[in-house]
Amino acid sequence: MDLTKTSTNRVDWRALWASGDLARFCFISLGILLHATNETMVATVMPAMVGELAGVQLVGWSLAIYELGAIVAGAAAGRLVSYVALRTNMTTAALLYAAGALVCATAPSMPLFLSGRLIEGLGGGALVSLAFVSVERLFARAIWPQLFGVMSAIWGVAAFSGPVLGAVMTELLSWRWAFGVFTLGGTAMALASFLVLDTPKATRPQATGGSAPPFPFAALGCLAVSVVLIATAGVDIALLRSSLLLTLGMIGLALFVYIDALKPRSRLFPSRLFSWRSPVGAGMTMVAAFSVATCSFAVYGPLLLTSLHDIPILTTGYIIAAESIAWSILSILVANAPPERERLIIVGGALMIATGVAGFAYTVPAGSIPLILLCALLQGGGFGIAWPFVTRVIVASAKEGEQTIASAAVPTMQRIGYAVGAALTGIVANASGFSEGLNREAAANVAAWLFLAFIPLGILGCLAALRISGASDDARLAKLPISPTRGEIG
Description:
Elements: E1 4-5, E2 10-11, H1 13-19, H2 21-53, H3 59-80, H4 86-106, H5 110-138, H6 144-172, H7 175-196, H8 200-203, H9 217-233, H10 239-262, H11 279-293, H12 295-309, H13 313-334, H14 342-366, H15 369-397, H16 403-431, H17 440-450, H18 455-468
Antiparallel strand pairs: 1-2
């Protein structure tokens, strides 16, 4: 059945529904909704959760370990479909996600909660990766842009609804019920995947052209160890021990980049990853610097605002949601900007992000909700206007044959940045007061240092933006479309 109008290249939604493909697409997209909502929700349940479980020293781990699981599972899922049927992969990933959410919902202690977050990250990362694989394998190429556009909109809705869902559930019931919702959602996703994905393409492995690319075991193993070392350095602050663990973790990250470059068939990143002689290197530096620098508010913002200023959890949820909305809206507004304005847009976005990071250093200790909201809008809006163009520059400037790797490398680097950033925020927060427990005095000290510590990375991101923006003169850039999206969809 022809599901598109070939003259206009638009989706015939009635035909898509009649064929059953629209229902399949809706269930596939549910995986993105579950993952993205959970990812952004945890910050708003953190104050209540820490109040019950204690373990404020491990708050940074909540995001770091979730992102780490998502990175590993996302890389694995795209390869496993060559050997295991898509339906089996989706069902297993959804059950894994539901199991992780159940562990979080019932956890009696912070360490057990973190184990649930790791399982959730594995399941959620696989669901997102499999969603994109599903579009490629189950739907006509002509309607891919429209379907990816819908997936992008779903991501935006999830990024907004996550913090609000966490705040509402915490206020009305309990933070545990917030994870209980995802337990039910993951279970429903698994059942739907088994029932709906019943086509031949979904029930048989789809090996193509011989063997699939090898899985980067060594590189990802090195990355996992590095993030754990950095996060461990901040749990129990001791100068010699923490310095040694932090140093080993940073060496491990460098080794991860080196190992990745040695395996051309399984590499996650393009060559010359951080070389500023190449627009690719400058662009990836910008992505990494800002991803790390902006973790502080996402991880600790609600906890600090609630502890210091008694700001309601629901209000903090709206602030984080506003940052996501600013990202999505401004991405759409600048998507069709002419190439000659690209330099101004990239640099302007970088300055907005850096200003937001620096602004939090004043506004969070002061407790001014309008100014905190302004910083959140600057940070999210800066990502929104800069990221599509940065991605386009990176892809256009990549070596011949590395464009696909470069395209996937941007969201991968973001996730690694979030994982490393969350681990580093734990070090700063615990070193400046939270190692002694959660109280108003400790929160005041943490708020004073947590954002100041990452201003240098904001400056580095701006310098990288100045460097990468010179690539806007490359004639190839005008030939590449911009996708006004965020996160993995970017």
